[in-house]
Amino acid sequence: MRIPSTTLWLVCISAALASPANYASTLTPSDVTAPFAVQPFAGLAVSGGTTQSFFSDLSALTFPGPGIVNILGNIQAFDSMGDSISAFGIAAVAVTQSGLTLMPQLENFILSAPTTYTSTLNSNQATLVPGALNLAFAFTSDPSFQYSYVLTTTGIPDGGFLLYDDVEGASIPEPVLLLPVGVLLGVMMAVSYWWRPKRESSRVGQVGPSELSPMAPGYLWYGNQVAGDRHVEDESAWRKTGVCGRHG
Q1: Mind listing the pLDDT tens digit for each residue in 121-157?
Q2: Which of the chain's termini has less CB crowding within 10 Å, N or C?
């Protein structure tokens, strides 16, 4: 069975894009660039293990592409009385945009030194420090550049809340993506080159009518004939068996 070349190319590219090597297990300041939107001391109430929604409108910024990195820096948790909670966690993030919800991977945001981000639109600033809980997620935005997100939390009772610095910037594409795509495309070019000669040589070596038993099924000959094989010259064999008529 011959697989269409278009299908092979699509499988190739899909495999490259889906490869775990194309996605960083952590995010760092080198993964995000201007423009920036900064909201220091963002607070989200928690109920039933889920925060209220945080809405972001980045449409006034000019992004180089659709990739967005959203950083949650210096995260702290408090109960309903305002007391700090030390044992808590943030398990997941759900992003909603244009009525669609996606679940990007929530990653650690690794800092080697305090890093200050300044809003491109105003004077808002936030300094993220290595010793704090810093998380981030990346996703591909639609042209509206407006979205909201909610966080799934653990260890925070109802009435408690999260306090953190929200920083949003443009995503810098992972250069490692080029390696698997390049390798796979090279493999597919080689397969495309060798596939056709292999098919042709295998067809020439197929058994012709003169080599078949008189009881050979007619579909074997018929398949060779309609496929364009003309290497069989002993046409008397066609008449001896009586199992197949010539077509075309």
Answers
A1: 999 999 999 999 999 999 999 999 999 999 999 999 9
A2: N
Closest listed residue to residue 34, CA positions, set 9, 85, 75, 69: 69
CA distance 222 to 43: 75
Residue 21 tokens read as 């090597």
pTM: 0.64
pLDDT in tens, 14-72: 444 433 333 347 999 999 999 999 999 999 999 999 999 999 999 999 999 999 999 99
Question: Is the distance from CB of 150 to CB of 94 less than 8 angstroms?
Answer: yes
Q: In the structure encoding, which two tokens stand for residue 131, read together? A: 């010793």
Bridge partner residues of 165 (DSSP): 73
Do 227 and 199 contact (CB within 8 A), yes or no? no
> What pairs with residue 169 in β-bridges?
69
Q: CB of 94 within 8 A of CB of 103?
A: yes
Domain extents in the chain: 24-173, 207-248
Angle of the 5-18 helix axis to the 178-204 helix axis, nearest 10? 150
Q: Residue 53 in contact with residue 141, Cβ under 8 Å?
A: no
If you classify domain 24-173 with CATH, what class do you get? mainly beta
Looking at residue 59, the DSSP 8-state letter turns out to be T
Farthest CA pair distance, the chain: 99
Task: List the alpha helices (DSSP H) in the chain.
Answer: 5-18, 178-204, 218-226, 236-241
